[in-house]
Amino acid sequence: MSEFAEVLEALRRVRGINPFFALDVGRPDESWLPGTALLEGPALKTTIDAIAIRYKAEEPRVAASLFFLSYTARLLSPLTAAGIPIDVRPENLWWQHHPTNGLSVRIDQPRLGPKAAEALEPVVEAIQSVAPVARGLLWGNAMSNIAGALKMVVRARMLTVEEAEERGERLMSAPPFEQAGEFLSFPGEVTFRRRSCCLYYRVAAGGKCGDCPLVK
What we know:
The protein is mainly α. Helix content is 44%, strand content 10%. InterPro entries: FhuF_C.
C-alpha cells in the first residue's frame, strides 16, 4: 500500500468515531488560511482575540489555551486513533476560525510526517509569542486530548483499555509529554488526570474538566 493510500485508509477508518476524528484532506475554498499563517502574520493573534471575546475571557492566556485545546483536539484525535504519524505540520494544513462554529482544520496532502510533538512545537512557540501562557499548560492540553481520544477509541472497541493506556504511557515517556499527567486505574475505562489546568474555569460560563487537577 502506498503512503498516500495508507494515510487515506487510516483517516477513513477512524472518522466515524465522532466529529473530532473526521480530518478532511485537500485544498479547501478561499475562506481557509494556510497553516503557515499560524506562525507569521496577524491571523493567530486575531483568532485568539476573537476567542477571548466569544468566551468573555479577560486574560489572553485563557483564550490562547482554548485555541490550542481546540486545535489539538482536531488533529490529535484522528492521529491517536489511526496510530500512524500523519503529517500535521503547519505547512501541510489549512485552517479557519468561524465566530459561531469555531475552529476547523484539514490537511493538504495525505502523507506521513514527524511525531505529533515535533509537528505541534512551532505552533506552541507561536502562541507563546502572542500570549503569556505556559508551555506545560499547552502540552497538557495536547496530552489531555490524546487521553480523551484514547477513551473514545476504547469505547469504539478499536483498542482495549490496556492497549490504549500503553499507547498513552509510551507518549508520556518522552518530552514534552512526560510531565503532562498520569493514567489512573479504573475498570473498563481510560482515565487520565493532568498536572496542569487548561483554565476553562476562568471563562464566563466555564467549569472544571473531568481530568482537571483542581477537581477534588
